[in-house]
Prior knowledge:
Layout: E1 4-9, H1 15-25, E2 30-34, H2 41-53, E3 59-62, H3 70-82, E4 87-91, H4 93-103, H5 108-112, H6 116-138, E5 141-147
Parallel strand pairs: 1-5, 2-3, 2-4, 4-5
Helix pairs in contact: 3-6
Amino acid sequence: MARIYFLIGGARSGKSSYGEELAKSLYGRVAYIATSKITDEEMEKRILYHRKRRPKNWKTYEIADKNIDKQGIKKIIKSISKENINTVIIDCITNLLFRIIHNYKLDSIKIIRNEVERALDMEVISFFKSLLEELEKSKLNVIIISNEIGLGV
C-alpha cells in the first residue's frame, strides 16, 4: 500500500468532498468504492448528489448486497489493481461496517447460547482483515472515509 488516509467527521461535514479533493491531488487514476445503500428518499438524494459530484473518469464500484463478503471485496480490490489505478476512496467505512452487521445471519442456537456478539465480532474482524490484506498487496493509495457518530450536523 502506498499510503492510507483516514478521514473522520460527522455526517454531512464535508469528509467525502475533502477525500475527493485529496484524491484529485494525488498522482494517477482514481477508483471509488461507494458503500451506501438506498434505504429511503433522503439517502437516495444523497447518493445521487455524490454520483453527480464525482469526476466522470473515476471508476466507481457501488457495493451491492452480494459484495458484502470477503470474496466480494477482494474481487473489487483485485479488479481495481488490474486497471492501472493509483488511488482508491472507500466511502464510507462506517456504512460498510453497518451493512456487514446487518447482513449477518443470526443463528437461533447462537442467540440462545449468547454467542452472537463473539461470532459477529469474528465476522467483522475477518472481513476487514481480508480487506486490509488485499489493499496491502495492491500498492494503492487508500482514502478511507468514516463517520464519527455524535458529530453530525
